[in-house]
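Exam prep: given the inputs below (a chain plus LLP), describe the expected output before reading on.
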Amino acid sequence: MNHFEYRDGRLFAEGVAVAEIAAAVGTPFYCYSAATLTRHYQVFAGALASLGALVCYAVKANSNIAVIRTLARLGAGADVVSEGELRRALAAGVPAEKIVFSGVGKTRPEMAFALEAGIGQFNVESAPELEALAEIAAGLGRTAPVALRVNPDVDANTHHKIATGRKEDKFGIDLALAPALYARAAALPSLKPVGIAVHIGSQLTTLDPFRAAFARVAALVRSLRAQGLTVERLDLGGGLGIVYEGESPPNPADYAAMVAETVGGLDVKLVFEPGRVLVGNAGILVTSVIFVKDTATKRFVIVDAAMNDLIRPALYDAKHNVVPAADRRNAARRAAEVVGPVCETGDVLARGAALPDDIAAGALLAIESAGAYGAAMASTYNTRLPVAEVMVNGDQFFVIRPRPDYEALISLDRLPTWLED
Ligand code: LLP
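Solution:
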């Protein structure tokens, strides 16, 4: 459920007409609904509440501090994968102890920064990372709370670029190697092993891969305990899919039931790292039609958003539904390829979008389900201005990331002395 809907033939984000925002901000822009973010968090966290879970929002999905703070105020912690994301989470007001630091390549300065900040958990993904963290923590006189992220060798049955739990993937520690590494962590005075973490991929639309992975992790927890090791926490990652176009992902209640079934009896504190399921359908990308170009084989609707603003279709062949901001429910439709101005054939935002036959330059379109991995993955390729971001809350809206001007963008470059005039 989300709060983007037509009223009297005009697309609204909560109580604000999308066209009104476009007139004030210009296009393209991402538009997020605070009520939708809130609802998604409450449904997800609510489903897991009886299991006593900590929900750490995966900041990579949408790292605007207004989005993070909206979720943090509801009780969310944060899952971060870089010092930059950690700084954003702290700036948004997430308490340090509710922050989990994931990722295969944390640098030593990043570890030091996170230790000084006092974060709640480092998800360690390799033996050398464990040793480096121990050394840095010892140097700072700190104790690092560590979860070992394991690789359960389970195929998440999602797009191959976002599956992370197969043995050939770079993520996690082989299950068979985890006990020795956990024992090593327990033996190092600057580390405190607190638990096990797992994340097998993103946009999962069935429960079976989760079930398989969680069952393997549960077995690992039992065997660690049998060795006399203490396991207090289990971080089950993120990955729950959303509806883009016709998928039917499990709902949070079914997901929670599967969690209870697989790891419910372990007496551990559960941690989750959802990203997409919280923010994906809480955002749209609003764009204007520049030209309509009919060719012998198809119609191109050329818009002012492009692959640099939303790379998911180009990178993962992702499908995003496109709708006109002016509802033309009864208008004749024609299939169109919605493309951006970037000079690449892959700059397609949607194929086969059923848009009104008489769609014309100046029309506003909304690309749906764009709240996750949209703005966060945007670039300035083709020296296009960074996309703006807007948050709506009831009948108010606020520009939560203004579009910088060309001078600000170009002045990031510097001419070397030998090229100065
Ligand atoms: N935890 C870890 C360790 C992760 O690597 C990820 C996502 C998450 C949590 C959150 O997963 P989610 O709940 O959002 O599925 N750019 C891609 C998705 C990449 C996901 C990377 N890791 C896309 O646009 O589909």
